[in-house]
Amino acid sequence: MATYKRLPVTFERGEGVWLWDTDGKRYLDALSGIAVCGLGHAHPAVRQAICEQAGQLIHTSNLYGIAEQERLGALLTERAGMDRVFFSNSGAEANEAAIKLARLHAHRRGIENPAILVAEHSFHGRTLATLSATGNRKVQAGFEPLVQGFVRVPYDDIEAIETASANRQNIVAILIEPIQGEGGINIPADDYLTKLRAICDREGWLLILDEIQTGMGRTGKLFAHQHSGIQPDVITLAKGLGNGVPIGACLARGPAAEVLTPGSHGSTFGGNPLVCRVGRTVMETIESDQLIDNAALQGDYLLSAFQEALGQTKGVTAIRGCGLMLGIELDRPCAELVPKALSTGLLINVTAERVIRLLPPLILQQAEANQLVQTLTELVRDFLTES
Ligand SMILES: Cc1ncc(COP(=O)(O)O)c(C=O)c1O
């Protein structure tokens, strides 16, 4: 179905940060399939994991023990400081699990009509519950009635949360992105998550962090919340966890980890041997190749290089970033930059109408970063003088 307005290109193969189309033209991928291919394309370790596992076992069922699921579960919970994990097939499903968990947790404590605080400009997925949690009318329009039980507040606004808390008795959780991705690479104040943690502790709410875009090394830490030194109650992951195989995860700790029990949630494919083997390989490669440090290093470099190149340019209103999650905001809609970049052999994205979004692979090297800065700077300058 026509759910996507596709660009006029089809890719045939990839290697590292590069993609080749069906005419043999080469592209620098500064989007990674929207924060998915952190290890780049056709990574040898991922390929080997898929081939070996496919030769051994792809799928059994969650009716049985799954050794690879246990291995990845142990690795992820250990690194995240969490107790348990539920595996899904996508980010939206990971958030569905988190929403169900928060509601069940509330009902068990006698709260009849639980509500979850969510932010303006957030994005949490396209299922009915997650689009209802999403703070973008375009995502919701036409799908009413929306799922109830979400209370919306402005992002990065502690006062608004205090007001919501004072006005309502039934809030049980906050579901929020540590940095908003689709919303325009919105980076909150340094102490925002710390303050959210303190409010959740005071009120007995669960702090649920949607790290689907920010997780798996993207921001220069394994998880973005680690920049703040806080510990959430629930974390959702997907995208970069599988480097392209469909896997999502909902991790929880403490009482939140004990809420979902046999019969309360499930998934046929979720956590099958193939995707979990790949997820483990991705985690191990991120660590063995020090890709988190690389993301921090290259991210800092890109941020300062773009600030240097475009910071004083009229029409550029902000340049922000955290690791390899960067946004260049213009004073006008700039979606047409995407096909322009494509024709020069560069893959970028524009979100929130005016924000050029860059999510290059974590394996990005200096020469590729330089090429990205040079090509995009020219494109932006030309666009701003022409439009
Ligand atoms: C923060 C965040 N949450 C959830 C999702 C939904 O993930 P999926 O498309 O895998 O369902 C996305 C996807 O862009 C996302 O960026």
Automatic annotation (TrEMBL):
N(2)-acetyl-L-ornithine binds at residues 126, 267. It catalyses: N(2)-acetyl-L-ornithine + 2-oxoglutarate = N-acetyl-L-glutamate 5-semialdehyde + L-glutamate. The modification N6-(pyridoxal phosphate)lysine is found at residue 239. Gene3D superfamilies: Aspartate Aminotransferase, domain 1 (3.90.1150.10), Type I PLP-dependent aspartate aminotransferase-like (Major domain) (3.40.640.10). It is found in: Cytoplasm. Binds 1 pyridoxal phosphate per subunit. One of its GO terms (molecular function) is pyridoxal phosphate binding. Pathway: Amino-acid biosynthesis; L-arginine biosynthesis; N(2)-acetyl-L-ornithine from L-glutamate: step 4/4. InterPro entries: AcOrn/SuccOrn_fam (IPR004636), Aminotrans_3 (IPR005814), Aminotrans_3_PPA_site (IPR049704), Class-III_PLP-dep_AT (IPR050103), PyrdxlP-dep_Trfase (IPR015424), PyrdxlP-dep_Trfase_major (IPR015421), PyrdxlP-dep_Trfase_small (IPR015422). Its EC number is 2.6.1.11. PROSITE patterns: AA_TRANSFER_CLASS_3 (PS00600). Its main location: cytoplasm. GO terms for cellular component: cytoplasm. This is Acetylornithine aminotransferase. The gene is argD.
